[in-house]
């Protein structure tokens, strides 16, 4: 085994230049490679596009034996292996999509020492006595790479139960170095990866998570498809990009809408048959200027350098998910846009999903905490990037390349409107024993005599009509801000508003409530029509 300095280091650089055709390592790559070549375990955290692959590919070529790469991306294994073979690397894969013959060939190459890298699916290592494990025991292994290692985190957004069995690698092959890699970066996730994969002694390599070329923007959702179209037409004509929607139905509708509007767009979600998904994915990768409209089922492992924008038409479930998805923009380092539209309805809908989810109370609390952090990012008056990086435990200063830096939102003292709203909710709760969604409280504050107001005699409440100084959309902003700051709670199937312990501090005037002042928009032509 080459030493980490001297000959070993030269061997790594030689491989980088000769095989991969690059002049120099980037960022943490060199340190990771040296550590793993010398036989150490590593936990590598690098943003998408940071260059994680070379962190295990180079050591696999320098060390004796085969580098075994555990990857959940079965659909991409063929592409990855083809790309390596094109560079002259002896690579193969084993997964369930393969026929017997192809599998036999790869097994043979492994046993006769004719492989440098072997990609395997996590499920094929399950149980500890699978055919793949028995095969691996008969050959010489240079290292194990565990790609997308956050899939082992149970509350994460990509949890794969098969990953839990990977702790056995350490027991079976205590002397083989392991390198776990991920682009998901909260310290809670690192800790969970380290403990579940028995990587407590691994060295951590944490790259900066900043992606300075991505401009982060978060806008209140008004007419989402029209807002999206404006963005594409004015700032990204002819560009490739990804539009994320929460549901399959809205993926289909949005893709149709874009096509009708003259923008080449393709849908992608788990409800499409496999052939269509594969075709759309490869068209997106190979053709220029296509827009992929997708659920979050799309994107992991996709290496398309010139994605110029990632747009979210619905609120992501967590900051980690948001960061991961937006990170697919601008991998080539050129200016790119991450744009998100979110509205009160998103919060209501996600709450509903959390309240009706299968998991136990702790699980639901975890999901709620993720949503709260996402909301706080949306409602912040600070630099988005500062907030985003702080979430991943990294300090930074105002970036000059996000919406709050470029057009600083005024913050305004919304304490009085907050009190008006909370006291409306309080009166409904106390005097009537009722709870309603945000719309009803806003109707009451605006003094609207709707059918529902009349039916419940809500015009007799003392807060009826005391909020006519704000518009409906400003009131929605007040509700969003209260939710984001944890001063109000939304719950249940109907997204009803209920007070929480912190609400009292506002009602008792013990604190002030600062809010983002959103620029006033021109009158709407459609959408939810105010009376
Ligand atoms: P990740 O897996 O972290 O998302 P990749 O390993 O796919 O990132 O690398 C992203 C891109 O950067 C790839 O196109 C890769 O070829 C390129 N790259 C990685 N390391 C280097 C390097 N040292 N020099 C030049 N290009 C690099
Ligand atoms: Zn900023």
Summarize this entry quickly.
With 531 residues, the protein is α/β, with parallel strands linked by helices.
Describe this structure in words.
- The structure is a single chain.
- By secondary structure, this protein is of the alpha/beta class.
- It has helices spanning 7-18, 29-37, 53-62, 74-86, 100-111, 131-136, 168-172, 187-196, 224-235, 248-260, 274-286, 319-326, 344-355, 361-379, 384-391, 403-406, 415-432, 438-445, 451-455, 472-484, 503-507, and strands at residues 42-45, 66-70, 91-94, 117-120, 141-146, 178-182, 203-206, 214-220, 240-244, 265-268, 291-294, 307-312, 336-342, 410-413, 489-491, 496-498, 514-517.
- It has a 7-stranded parallel sheet with strand order 3-4-2-5-6-1-7, with helices on both faces. It has a 6-stranded parallel sheet with strand order 8-13-12-9-11-10, sandwiched between helices. A two-stranded antiparallel sheet has the order 14-17.
- Residues 1-9 and 521-531 have low confidence and may be disordered.
């Amino acid at each position: 085994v080459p030493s980490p300095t001297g000959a070993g280091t030269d061997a790594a650089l030689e491989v980088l230049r000769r095989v991969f055709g690059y002049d120099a390592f980037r960022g943490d790559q060199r340190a990771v490679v040296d550590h793993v070549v010398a036989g150490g375990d590593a936990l590598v955290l690098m943003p998408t596009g940071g260059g994680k692959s070379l962190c295990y590919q180079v050591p696999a070529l320098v060390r004796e034996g085969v580098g075994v790469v555990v990857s959940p991306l079965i659909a991409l294994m063929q592409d990855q292996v083809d790309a390596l073979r094109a560079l002259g690397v002896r690579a193969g894969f084993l997964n369930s999509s393969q026929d017997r013959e192809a599998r036999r060939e790869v097994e043979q190459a492994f046993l006769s020492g004719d492989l440098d890298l072997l990609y395997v699916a996590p499920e094929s290592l399950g149980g500890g006595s699978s055919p793949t494990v028995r095969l691996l025991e008969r050959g010489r292994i240079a290292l194990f790479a565990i790609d997308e290692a956050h899939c082992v985190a149970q509350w994460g957004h990509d949890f794969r139960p098969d990953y839990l069995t990977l702790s056995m690698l350490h027991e079976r092959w205590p002397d083989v170095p392991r390198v776990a890699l991920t682009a998901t970066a909260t310290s809670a996730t690192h800790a969970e990866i380290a403990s579940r994969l028995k990587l407590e002694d691994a060295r951590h390599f944490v790259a900066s998570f900043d992606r300075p070329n991505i401009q982060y923007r978060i806008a209140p959702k008004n007419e989402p498809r029209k807002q999206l179209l404006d963005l594409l037409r004015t700032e990204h004509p002819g560009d490739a990009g990804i539009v994320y929607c929460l549901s399959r139905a809205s993926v289909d509708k949005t893709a149709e809408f874009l096509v009708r509007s003259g923008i080449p767009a393709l849908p992608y979600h788990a409800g499409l048959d496999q052939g269509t998904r594969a075709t759309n994915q490869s068209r997106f990768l190979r053709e220029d200027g296509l827009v992929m409209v997708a659920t979050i089922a799309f994107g992991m492992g996709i290496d398309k350098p010139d994605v110029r924008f990632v747009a979210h038409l619905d609120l992501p479930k967590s900051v980690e998910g948001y960061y991961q998805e937006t990170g697919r923009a601008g991998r080539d380092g050129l200016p790119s846009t991450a744009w998100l539209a979110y509205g009160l309805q998103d919060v209501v809908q996600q709450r509903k999903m959390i309240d009706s989810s299968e998991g136990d109370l702790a699980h639901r609390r975890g999901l709620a905490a993720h949503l709260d952090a996402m909301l706080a990012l949306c409602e912040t008056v600070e630099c988005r990037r500062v907030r985003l990086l702080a979430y991943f435990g990294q300090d930074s200063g105002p970036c000059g390349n996000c919406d709050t830096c470029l057009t600083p939102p005024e913050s305004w003292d919304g304490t009085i409107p907050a009190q008006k709203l909370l006291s409306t909710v309080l009166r409904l709760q106390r005097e009537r024993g009722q709870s309603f969604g945000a719309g009803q409280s806003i109707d009451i504050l605006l003094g609207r005599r709707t059918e529902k107001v009349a039916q419940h005699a809500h015009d007799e409440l003392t807060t009826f009509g005391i909020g006519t100084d704000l518009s409906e959309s400003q009131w929605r902003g007040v509700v969003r801000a209260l939710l984001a700051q944890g001063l109000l709670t939304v719950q249940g199937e109907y997204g009803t508003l209920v007070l929480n312990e912190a609400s009292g501090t506002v009602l008792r005037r013990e604190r002030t409530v600062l809010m983002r002042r959103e620029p006033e928009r021109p009158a709407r032509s459609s959408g939810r029509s105010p009376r």
